[in-house]
Amino acid sequence: MVYNYTKPRGPIAAMYSSPGPCYSLPSLVGFPNHDPRSNHLRGAQWSFGVRHGKFNDDCSPGPCYYPDSKVLRDGKDGTPHYSLYSRQKESLIFSNPGPGAYTPENSDSSVFNKAPAYSLSSRNKEFKVDDVPGPNRYNIDPMLGKTVRSQKQSAPAYSLSSRTKLFGAAETPGAGAYNVTDLNLYHEAAPKYSVTGRNQLPTDTTRKPGPWAYYPERVNVNSKSAPQYSFGIRHSQYKGEFITDADLDQ
Signal peptide position in this chain (predicted)? Predict the structure, then answer.
């Protein structure tokens, strides 16, 4: 049996190495390259003229040269302008004190009677340097030990002598140097138990599948099944090339 290929009704994209057929359609704008057999209406086409060279350069001054809007033909407009001058210096004739310079509330001492007031004079220079020693210049005899000039009884004083070389090092053993005898040697011994290790029988250590690894419902060897057919491989000349690992390395 020979398989006859069906002729394609339209173009196949794999048959073209260039962009798709949509780019080969004629334009619908204007008369150039317009297909009269097209069912679509022709679109309008406009063209822009060339800018004249005369209007490219602007020879007039910019906006910064525009005159002020307040300047008219006869000069500036009639809006009044005022200026502030500096303050003139006061004349020496008017340098008398004003009413705020007087303090009549301080005149009580000269008008009314007041209590006597005394002032403290300055310190005399002769007594500025005091040659008498202060309290911290005296040394009081201590009360411990023998008192020389004091009539009070001194407190007892003790002294610690130095350590002698004869009894300096303790040559006798301490409490930690003795070994304590086990009580089980001269008393009734307590019971002792020992736990032995677990003994395992030699078995196979390889892993084996369990009951869940089997699928008995998929076994159809002992039952009838429907016929099954397979198709061969179709070879197409339009089959694309696959990307290999060598292409990715590049």
Answer: none
Collect all residues with Cβ–Cβ distance below 8 Å to 38 and sequence separation of at least 6: 26, 28
Calculate the dihedral angle through the C-alpha atoms of 94, 100, 101, 102, rounding to the nearest 10 degrees. 120
Q: What does the alpha-carbon distance between residue 187 and residue 200 come to, in Å, rounded to a whole number?
A: 40
Q: Assess contact for 147 and 157: CB atoms under 8 A.
A: no
Cα–Cα distance, 173 to 178 (Å, whole number): 8
The tens digit of pLDDT for each residue in 116-165 reads: 888 887 776 665 566 777 778 877 777 666 666 667 777 777 788 877 77
Name which of 29, 60, 33, 32 is nearest 43 in CA terms. Answer: 29
d(CA 68, CA 64): 10
Distances (CA, A) of 65 to 61, 69, 114, 192: 6, 12, 84, 120
| CA distance linking residue 109 with residue 115, whole number of Å | 10
Q: d(Cα 63, Cα 127) in Å, to the nearest integer?
A: 92
Alpha carbon 180 to its chain's center: 66
> How many whole angstroms separate alpha carbon 185 and alpha carbon 188?
8
Cβ neighbors of 148 (< 8 A, separation 6 or more) are 141
Identify which has the larger pLDDT, 87 or 150.
Answer: 87
User: In angstroms, what CA-CA distances link 52 with 56, 59, 61, 62, 217?
Assistant: 7, 15, 21, 21, 91
What pTM was estimated for this model as a whole? Answer: 0.15
Report the alpha-carbon distance of residue 199 to residue 188 in Å, rounded.
34
